[in-house]
Amino acid sequence: MCTVTLIRDDATLRLACNRDELRTRPVARPPVERAFGERRALLPIDPVSGGTWIAVNDAGLALTLLNVNLETPPTNHVHHRSRGGIIPSLLGMTSVDEALDAAARLDPALYPPFRLIVLDRHSLGDVYSDGKTRRVDRISHDALPAMFASSGLGDHIVDPPRRELFTRMFTGHDQTAATQDAFHPHPSPDRTELSVCMARSDAMTVSFTVIELHSDAASMRYQPGLPTNDAAATTLSLALHEAYAS
Prior knowledge:
There is one protein chain. By secondary structure, the protein is mostly beta strands. The chain has helices at residues 96-104, 155-170, 177-183, and strands at residues 2-9, 12-22, 29-36, 39-45, 54-57, 62-67, 114-119, 124-129, 134-139, 146-149, 203-213, 217-224, 234-239. The relative contact order is 0.22.
C-alpha cells in the first residue's frame, strides 16, 4: 500500500513515496548503504521480508514497488516469494532497460501482484503483474508529473480521489519539490482511509521517502512515521559512479 509521485524539478528527478502498512507490521529499519555486485545502493530494510520497497544505486537507477490490489482478487493461489526481494535482485543493474529486462524475466506466479517503477534521469519504466501475467511499459519523461497509488481497500477505490487531488495541485503549477512535499502529507479528514496520508483502524501511513537524482549524485531522505515528521528524518547520499554521471 503506497502513494508514489514522480516529478522533474529543474534538472533533478524526484521520486516520493508514502508507505502505508498494517499497524501490526514491525517498523522498518532506516536506510543503509549496501553493495550489490559492483554497485552501491541506498535502501530502507523491511524486517519481515529482509527486502525493501524503495532504493537507489550509484548508477543513478531508482526503483520503488507498490502492491497491486485487484478489484477481483485472485483465489486459491499460493505465492512463494516476498515482493520485498524484487528490488534487491535488480540493484546490480545500471540502466532502466537492463532492470526492466531482468524484471520481465521474473515468474509472476511466484509473487503476489505488484507494480514496479524503475527510473533514472533519462528513462522511466513500469512493470505490472497481476500474479499470473505481467506487462512492461516504457514511459516518456514527458508524462511527468506522475502518480501511482495502491491500497488494501482496492486500488480502484483510492486511486480516483488521490489522482483528483494530484491533478488539482499540479495543474497550472511548475513541478516543484514544495508542491510534491505538500501533496504527500495531505489529509482528507472526512475520508481518512482514502487520504494520501492515510489512516484507518488496521493501517496507516508509516513512512515517507524521497529520492533525488542529480547529474552526479543520488540522495535518499527517509522519514519514519508521518510525512511531516522532519525531525526524525535520515538522509544519505551516493556519488554516482563516473561511468553513469551526466
